[in-house]
Structures are given as C-alpha cells and as structure tokens.
Amino acid sequence: MPEYELLSDYPLLAHNTFGFDVRAKYAVRLTEEAQIASLARDERVKNAARLVLGGGSNVVLTQDFDGLALLMELRGRHVIREDADAVYVEAGAGENWHEFVAWTLSQGLPGLENLALIPGTVGAAPIQNIGAYGLEMGERFDTLRAVELSTGDMREFDSNACAFGYRDSFFKREGRGRFVIVSVTFRLPKKWVPRAEYADIARVLENGSSDSPQAIFDAVVAVRQAKLPDWRVLGNAGSFFKNPVIGAAEFSALKAREPDLVSYKQPDGQFKLAAGWLIDRCGWKGRSIGAAAVHDRQALVLVNRGGASGAQILELADTIKRDVYARFAVELETEPVCL
C-alpha cells in the first residue's frame, strides 16, 4: 500500500484563496495516483466525506470540514503524442495552471495563452471549464483520467463524458464528490489562430505588440493584473458570478429599459449579459458588508478584506443577487462551489 500521512485537525487557511481560517477533520497530501486507491480501502476514513483541494481558488468554505481533505500535489507535464493536426500535452492535476500555460508556450506549443493567470490547478480547470477572453478550456481538451473515490478505480473521460457547459461540467454536478481528477490531456492545434478580439486585449496589442502567442499571453496577464486583485494580497475566488444568459425576447425588453446594457449575442440567438455591469449599476462596486466586500475595480469579484467568514461572503452575494433581480429581473448564479 502506498504510504501517506493522515493529518488530523488540519488547517485549510493556506488551501483556499479567500483565506478562510477553517479546518478539516482529516487531510492527506496526494503525490501519487496509487494513494487515492489506497484511501478507498483505508478503514480510518473509508466513510468520510471527501473534499478535493488544488489551489482552492474556486471554493467558499463556510465552516470546518468534517471529513477528509484531499490536497492535490500530483505533478508532471509532458508531450505524449502528436498527429497531423495537433500536439497532445498531459499535465498532473496538481500542476499550477498559469505555470503550465507558460510552459506550453516555452515548448513552442500555443493554444492556451488566452487562459493565462487564471488561478488554480490543472485538475480544477475541467471542473469549472475555465474560460477567458474568447476561449474556453473545453476547446483545447482531449481527455482526463480520474479515480472513483468509492472504489479506487481509474477511469478515462473524453469531452462528451465531461459534459462541458458554461463554467460547468459533469464533475460540478453528477460527478461532484465521486471522482478526483489526476491528470488532464490537452489538444493543442498545430495551425495556430490568434484570439485577440476582446477589446481589452486588442487595446494592449495595438500599443506596439504583435499578435504572437507570447504577445497575447503577456496582454492577458497585463489586463488581468490591472483589473483583478491578487488573492495573496486580498482574498478572493476570482469572478464570483456567472454572466447570465437570457432569451432574445427577454433581452429586447430589458434593452428597451436599459439602452446601454452590455451584452454579447450567442450563436444560438440568446444573449450573454455582463454580470459585473449589472452589479455595478446596482451600486455595489466597492461596497461591503463588514469585511466582505465587492472589489472597487471589478464588481464581479467579492473579496475578503480581512477576517471575513465564508458565511459573510455568501450573505453579501445573496444581497447582491436580490438587488440585481429587483432591478433587472435577471438571476445571478455563483461560480464557486460553496461548502
């Protein structure tokens, strides 16, 4: 049986980017895939609830966790094969996402540059189907390997099995709590086409940069650093709300009432609204309830100004949701997993 240390009363302060000072009844650092199968047979924790934590960048911990926290530290990144159209790159679930994106570019393998500086780990990326600046991870996804927690059995998932949606996947719904992702393989196209249509990115590139993969990577980093707080300085989980999608008729009625409504028409005829704009129009940017606050530069981001609890962050989020619905009749949905 692979060795691991079962840690008791383990502090999770360093394992969530909001900086909530909560604890897990048990925790284990996972550095080998075989350890997960062994845990399924470990009588000490066999029936304990599981919480998988990579970077902890998409979770709101409202209380101590009465179960086993799996701290993902599975490393490794390498090219595994190629065909006429693409190169396939595999990375361990515990790899830092931004560092992995930077590594692919250093290997001459573009395709993920629009997703630079998104916090978290490689293993968390498919769960959320992370996306930014015109690209979703699902477009570059090939397969992933995951262990079923109850049995320790390994299973491979393709894109269809992952059921990717907008900031959504099988692992966020039916598969939640059932599987732990151990590695992800990405399909990076040999024929690279830049994605630089977003206004903020285009503006940076117009200031003398080319539209090379590295230039887009650098532009994305610059824009994100200008707009979003560093979680190591100000606790946060990035964008807290999804951009809501509404039907054409609902959009037309809302646009008539709000002529400067920020929106993006979708291929299916629906319209995606800018949640940050809706929140800002309700006067929430920069406001707070105690130490839980809305960031003063990006209304999509809720922050911990120091000492806020997960429950206080959720109280703030619920108040914002009610205000947005009262004004726009649009429901906001949270992105992070709340426990």
UniProtKB/TrEMBL annotation:
> Cofactor(s) for this protein?
FAD
Q: Which E.C. number(s) belong to this protein?
A: 1.3.1.98
Q: Which GO terms describe its biological process?
A: cell division; cell wall organization; peptidoglycan biosynthetic process; regulation of cell shape
Where is this protein found? Cytoplasm
Q: What class of enzyme is it?
A: oxidoreductase
The family assignment reads:
Belongs to the MurB family.
Q: What protein name is recorded for this chain?
A: UDP-N-acetylenolpyruvoylglucosamine reductase
Tell me what organism the protein belongs to.
Caballeronia sordidicola
